[in-house]
Amino acid sequence: MKPESWQLVFDADQISAAVERVSDELNKECSGDDWLVLAVMNGALVFTADLMRRLSFVHELDSVRVSRYHGETSGGELIWHASPVASLDGANILLVDDIFDEGHTLLALHQHMQASGAAQVRSVVLLDKQHDRKVAEFSPDYCGLRCADCYVFGYGMDYEDRWRHLPEIYALPEEA
């Protein structure tokens, strides 16, 4: 049972509309090439699954598992848990993540994909958190929704390692 004090940030319909809009953009811009959809686990699991069902271009799926939060509400050092199995050399990579907060994780992954020989790397995030602490000169290529600078969870994102299964996105009351 979820606490009633949580603040709804995005409902399931708003999320679905954002995923549809992003997939439409990707279908226009990525058609004609084969792509490696690379999900950043665990947070991007739900978003990637919903997004892939709407993609009409040829793609394969793989994942990378890195973390900065380690069950906390603020990020720390980037830890690599699992690398992609697919070859990155010459690949067109669509890097899919749940949220663009400060950008350290996505930037590090983007640089790693390029250093591994990817032909091109494009990044897709469901949420872009609005604040001025972002890494310089880097932003995702595609974004579903913009959100306030608060800790959000649900729709694949966790709060204390739980609540990823929620179809909506919430914030804690003091954060909303």
Number of helices: 3
Euclidean distance between termini CA atoms: 20 Å
- The overall strand count is 9
Strand order of the largest sheet: 4-3-2-5-6-7
* Biggest β-sheet strands, sense, barrel: 6 strands, mixed
The CATH first-level class of the domain at 17-69 and 87-147 comes to Alpha Beta
Mean of all residue-level pLDDT scores: 91
- Unreliable residue runs: none
Query: What coarse outline follows from CA principal-axis ratios?
Result: globular
Radius of gyration: 16 Å
CATH topology of the domain at 17-69 and 87-147, what is it called?
A: Rossmann fold
The run of helices and strands is EHEHEEEHEEEE
Strand content: 25-35%
Organism: OM182 bacterium MED-G24
Protein name: Hypoxanthine-guanine phosphoribosyltransferase
Catalytic activity: GMP + diphosphate = guanine + 5-phospho-alpha-D-ribose 1-diphosphate; IMP + diphosphate = hypoxanthine + 5-phospho-alpha-D-ribose 1-diphosphate
Domain Phosphoribosyltransferase: 11-143
